[in-house]
Amino acid sequence: MTRIVITFFILGMFTLSGWCGPIKSVFVNFPGDQMRNMTDEELADTYLKRFGYINTLEKSGLQSQSKALMKMQKQLGLEETGELDQATINAMNQPRCGVPDVRSYQTFAGNLKWDHNDITYRVLNYSPDMDESLIDDAFARAFKVWSDVTPLTFTRLYAGTADIMISFGKLDHGDPYPFDGKDGLLAHAYPPGEGIQGDAHFDDDEFWTLGNGAVIKTRYGNADGAICHFPFTFLGKSYSSCTTEGREDGLPWCSTTASFDEDKKFGFCPSELLFTYGGNSNGRACVFPFVFDGETYNSCTTEGRNDGYRWCATTSNFDTDKEYGFCPSRDTAVIGGNSEGEPCHFPFTFLDKTYTSCTSEGRGDGKLWCATTSNYDKDQKWGFCPDRGYSLFLVAAHEFGHALGLEHSSIQDALMYPMYKYVKDFSLHSDDTAGIQFLYGPKTGPDPTPPQPKSTTSPPVTTTEPTRETTETTPHPVDPKDDACQVDKFDAIAEIKGQLHLFKDGYYWTMSSQRKEGLNGPFPIKQSWPALPAVLSTAFEDILTKKIYFFSANQFWVYTGDQVQGPRRIEKLGLPASLERVEGSLPRGKGKVLLFSEDKFWRLDVKTQAVDTGYPRYTDYVFGGVPNKPHDVFLYKGHYYFCQQSFYWRMNSKRQVDRVGYVKYDVLKCPAYHHK
User: Fold this and answer.
1) Which member of 399, 407, 541, 583 is catalytic?
2) Is 399 a catalytic residue?
């Protein structure tokens, strides 16, 4: 490898400076800010619902917030006052795991665990915050936390399907539980099982470190890839970040010892001018300017992507060459805001005042931020300043505990406590050890030899191209020649005559509950039920009379064999005239069925054709842990299914969510699923 040598000359003086003068605090709505100011009461209501403390129905129809607060305080090891006191508010504002604190047991409902001890994992992508080798090491050490006290082994795969699929993402990142921007929810993981279960997701709007500030692994130079040492001295000046001082080419560098003046050890810091990661260019540096979609770019961009990741072309024209890579984050890059990955610009103007360092002015949460152009008032480009960040090792060890079957602990010093806390010298708490050994037993004998991976052990090259995000304004009907696996969201799903029926745009498919014959169809709806419209919203079969009820918008039909009644308006059943549609149904036996719409449900007495008194009730108060506004609800093989977008939440007879997954891949067993 060719050594790149620094040519030193002084371009200017590096100074430590502060903002120029005090101004009166004025709170500003920053564009792109994911956080919104909430009252304490709004915060409590959101928190208690999100993390499972409000999930049961009382006779009044509303969950007592005081009792919910006491449950939360007990779970988090706080004084159980039942009041929204300052200690409780402070706890609600702490960064934490996104997995709900559903119950006090140490394992998920049903003691979910893997049925084998040789667990495989795969890292699907990387964060730009740290070198890939550091991320790999953090994950390996996190798995070792659990293999040290159990018979489990963990083997990494570089292709194919693994038990635990690991990925970084932002906001809506492809599962039912979106992240919330910087701080707040750090990560989440699913309990063992098929499909999405077992997977671990990390919020890439966080600043991932080893818990004590940026970890910069150098490249080239003469330090053999050593970590930057901050602060370091160069020509008598102290530097706390990478610098371009002393160089003509603008490449950022750092010393890998406390004093470059004495030791002359240095390396180059992450920069798109040196390398990229991911993509399909094998790490080649960006080429500026480059052409994408007919436009010229002089820096990394997020255009063409809907995940917020910065990329560049590695030739002068992406349109012709299709070669690209993702841009690494510089140590001075902002986090979040609307300028992710761009460096702070000092000085900058904010409300007509000049700032030469990060400031918390304009914010009610005290977080430090900066502008990424010279004038925030004009350009409104900004981001949060780098801080100590979150230890990827500690957060990963916690999430992998969930992926193995552990729930949250109420012991504040336990790894499985839901709130994040940096620990310099980590050791596993006895509560964590007891929980994981309850599932898998203690470690016995010498370390077993891990099984050989079933797929390639060398990293493949990613070839996904950045593409313009398109927005469809009108739905496209299903082509009858296509199959159910090409449908993203069905109009209605119902179990009829022992078979699952899936309706979409005038057609339907059936699937045997035994799943021996697979999917059949599509069949025209009018072939079986001539009176029905093309688009249905829900359906159910009455257990006692075997009559089949179909709903579309605010009308319903009742089929008894070939005989039909309807259409009739849903007000005939006692439902409100203002109700636009019934979106789900759950037969409950004894002639009762629950009908769902928006965030409420009604209980219908099929025999009397009337809604029972005491309804509607709120879905999330009775069925804790499911979507507040499901687009479909149905009964299948004794389980309740609540659907939102392409996902489902399955609930058992004890009203416990025991599985979350994809309708197409997990229920219908469609092929070509990249997870499991």
Assistant:
1) 399
2) yes
